[in-house]
Records
---
Amino acid sequence: MDLVDPFGRTIRDLRISVTDRCNFRCTYCMPVEGMQWLPRSEVLSFEEIHRLAGIFVERYGVDGIRLTGGEPTVRAHLTVLVSKLSQLRVPASSASPFAGGKPNLALTTNGATFRLIAHELRDAGLDRVNISLDTLQADRFIEMTRRDELFRVLDGIEAAKEAGFSPVKINAVVQRGVNDEEVVDLARFGRDRGGEVRFIEVMPLDAEGGWNRQQVLSQDEIVATIDAVFPLEQMPARGAAPADRFRYCDGGGVIGVIPSVTRPFCADCDRVRLTADGQFRTCLFETREFDLRGLLRAGATDDEVAAEIERAVGTKWAGHQIGQVNFIRPKRSMSQIGG
Ligand code: SAM
């Protein structure tokens, strides 16, 4: 049975945050210090994640799972979780390209320690990886992440390629007056290294509430800046994927842009989210969460958990309201929700 929201969108993609902790402190995501970490007892165990993921995949035909955080690689034994999720099966009766097989498993990471586990994650069944990289300049990297780890992130990208991930996607959040002058350099990096750079408009999910619209470098600006140096053409519509994709006219590869602020793609959204503490969310910007961990720990049956999931999906809204007067920031910031 499909999980369909009130606007007729079928849920296919589940983002699971495996931890709220992170080894970076990116300015647009976390404060320099003072984060209140979840107590370990509140974080879902691998068994709990596997059980919930099983309901989404095997009951509702969700065929894509992305592990995120916080920084997912700081969670010990992440490979064990990937192996467990690899054993799930999308129903053979589903219309999904993954019908009868395992769901497509992806990871979003800052890449700093990825070399240590790239091969074992691949062997465990991880299909895709996105590595975040906002700047190629060492000083700016320290300013933006508050860590001196650029060389390790670059090495993590190489390790991902060596382990067989293809293409490795590079997530770059661009902010006016911070790293916007590097848009072309980042595009060139992707062309030279065979990676697909995905430029992300900065969203109001920073921990300190400092976001403002002037910081947002829009999709139109990003594309025009790159197009002036490396001509681009837009690729066919993206379906439910968040990125608009453009290819270089000279065959130099592809870029993506995630225009959450200037061109929200809510009408095609097929995503739902599970936070590290087992709260179910139907949108990154939702203010309401549904407590699946509480149900699991109270001994609920799969049918009871599924009924709560259906109730929650029944509240999925048509779209978020960033930039409009009625927009309410969610209480939790990006690292606490899971990006
Ligand atoms: N730690 C991992 C990483 O760095 O990729 C995974 C979690 S992180 C929250 C996931 C993605 O969200 C990263 O690409 C990050 O740059 C992006 N992100 C975080 N805060 C953001 C914001 N305020 N606006 C847009 N993207 C943001």
---
Amino acid sequence: MKIATLIAHEILASGGYPTLEVVVTLDSGEVGTASVPYGISAGSHEASVLIDGDQTRWHGQGMLKAAANVMEKIAPVVMGMDASDQRALDEAMIELDGTPNKAKLGGNAILAVSLASARAAAAALKKPLYQHIIDTYNTGVDLSELPHPMIVAIEGGKHADNTTDLQEYCFLGLEPKSPTESVRIILECYHELKKVLKSIGLSTNVGNEGAFAPSNIASNEAPFRYMTHAIEAAGYTPGKEVGFSIDAAANEFYKNGEYHMRVENKKFSSPQMVRYYEYWLENYPIVSVEDLLSEDDWDHWPILKKLTDKHKVMLIGDDLTVTNVERLQKAIDADAISAILIKLNQIGTLTETVDCCLLARKHNMATVTSHRGGGETNDTAMVDLAVAVGSAYIKVGPTRGERVAKYNRLIEIERELND
Ligand code: 2PG
Ligand code: MG
């Protein structure tokens, strides 16, 4: 299972700019291909995404430098290495890079090699990728409990124009149904939501992730009402089969120590912001919340955590924790969160991602494995990862090919496990 060749090139991501695809071939002839996504509301503590900065092509967003790093710098080190020894491979690339955030080689370059190698090894071992991850890291996961869908229904913030300050309002499946059934129920609600928005004269155009992005929305609270109507119109009961999750992506409206709510034309201190959310937790069937405060507002996350604990709501860190064991440990020590969002490209190797998931599990914290808003590809490794580490949910948009590819992979895994 020795790595024989590495090829890297640009492919298009859903945002219309390039991203990186890597093809790893083993000396046994097995091939593994992987591509990596990028975020739009990326946290400042994430692994770097190396872009060319050459303004004569792709507005500087090309990835030829990252591709060259794979072929010229990473390849000489990893060629000949055993693709099934994923930890050794990832550690070799981390050492070669030598920076805390993979700025030298690019987190995109390193992750693409990491995932393509995992795929090649899984192919050589004749295992599905999720099983290969389970076996490689001894995750000890129970495959009778697959992740459930957390489906973005309304998106705003940086993912759309002139809509909510909060970035995402999601539906999630509540009753213990199969993931496939949950996907169906939620998408039925999504289609009803389109009718609800239309009926009140709001646009049903979609944002980056395929969720509705109505402009001139009345308030940041209004989506809860629209989504409640949609659940009822689909024949379900809010809080019974379907609940809500929100991702504020609060970094994006945090400036000079205050939270700027453009829609309501108000500015809040951190304690005021927590009170603002409290009203929603009391009035809507909110099951989970993410990044309600900014990525370094450490003093107030524990206050928010007490509130979400009181309401039995899962509090997810995303930009706060960036799939990084050190930031996760800090959040655990501060009692700042009860769950963590997992994005492979926030940290940049499969090994570090799984280590982060295992640390979360050790502390009885749920993981939610997520797509990226900026540019996604049809690569579905995030779903296999979610299955392999026992994530509670996968967070992905409802429509567009690069999003439904993830749900189709989840459905395929469920089908295969039941056969
Ligand atoms: C998030 C993500 C995914 P982005 O904040 O959770 O929806 O957005 O990839 O733009 O950071
Ligand atoms: Mg987020």
